[in-house]
Amino acid sequence: MLATIVNIVRREIELLGQDFQQWRSRMAGRGRGAGDLLAGRQTNERAAVLRYVRTTLTLVLAFVILYAAGGLIPVGFDWKCCFSTGNLGTFFVPWMNPIVRLFNPQSIFAVTILALVLRMWRYHARAWRIALALISLPTLWLLFLGNVDGLVMVGLLLLPVLGVPLVLVKPQVASFSLLANRRSIAATLVWIVISIVLWGPWPLNFLGVGDAAWREAWPQDITLYPWGALLALPLLWWSRGDEDMLMAAGSLLTPHLFPYHFYVLMPALGRMNVFWALLSWAVSFTPLLANYWGPGAWHFGNLLSLTLWLGLYSRRRSLQRALGQRQTA
Q1: How far is residue 318 from each of residues 122, 136, 146, 312, 322, measured CA to CA in Å?
Q2: How far apart are CA 223 and CA 144, in angstroms?
Q3: Phi and psi dihedrals of 248, rounded to 5?
Q4: Are 198 and 211 in contact (CB under 8 A)?
Q5: How does pLDDT run across 290-311, given as a tens digit for each residue?
Q6: 92 three-state secondary structure
Q7: Who is most buried in 160, 174, 234, 314, counting CB within 10 A?
């Protein structure tokens, strides 16, 4: 057992070393590209630097526009009551407050939209799918509530290592993505140890989440814990290696789940076929039925876990079949 742990640690250290060497290589390439740009030489490094500069400028311009747009909507309740005052509950991770102090409502608005768009851009999603994710209930709810789940999406973009602290800022759903990669698991364990050294045994603060008093105060908490584990555990096994599938399965198991927490899964609409994407988008609005059918109807939101997972699984199976056919051809 000890030898196995030592080998795993050694392997992770080797992978981190490879990451560092690749980073140095990229930085050296950008340095050469900048020199070629100034000298007017036409090289691949110069073209890469130009693409990087254009992308950066586009993101800056988009951020400025979204920042201005964020100033046109009322400041959300969560920002007013909690994040602007630092009056966070004990169930928040201790590094939440230092991070949130770097932002204001307008910047959170911009980050929430940009991070979602960037993750879908990585999936090569079409524009209509991005629009669908932006006008889904989880995204709209989050934008008008003034919560900070957009920082979690940034963390997902920075995985497998650097994004771990941001993913864990709101771990309800996103933390399951860390199971997709051994390096993410290792980075999570290291960060948890470091954070306990810095802030004490903060995970114990989660023990009060989901008790009777909590459920009475938050009827919109649609967690299925612990019974959701009966379905979540096999789905987690079948989701190995896929961040979105793991998050969709994990949302059935998490002990705390508000419907807007599905925001981190909205980019998955860019990865499934049209039927499942449109169905998942429509299902995202079903928690609103609680306005007509009472608090129990909040749990219609749990259907989104299933439609998202099934859509992703269907796409995975289609890709596997296509690959098998090419290999046998």
Answers
A1: 20, 26, 38, 10, 6
A2: 22
A3: -65, -45
A4: no
A5: 999 998 899 999 999 999 999 9
A6: coil
A7: 174
Tokens 């080998």, residue?
A: 7
Q: Where are the domains of the chain?
A: 51-328
* Helices (H), ranges, the chain: 2-39, 44-70, 77-78, 96-100, 105-122, 127-134, 137-145, 149-157, 164-167, 171-174, 182-199, 212-217, 229-238, 243-250, 274-283, 290-293, 303-328
CB 290 within 8 A of CB 297: yes
Q: Which residues contact 70 (CB under 8 A, 6 or more apart)?
A: 105, 106, 107, 108, 109, 110
Show the tokens assigned to 18.
């490879």
Give me the residue label for tokens 């920075």.
158
d(CA 206, CA 202): 8
What does the alpha-carbon distance between residue 192 and residue 188 come to, in Å, rounded to a whole number? 6
Q: What is the pLDDT of residues 234-249, one digit of tens each?
A: 999 999 999 999 999 9
The pLDDT assigned to 220 comes to 85
Q: Which residue, chain included where needed, has tokens 């400028």? A: 57
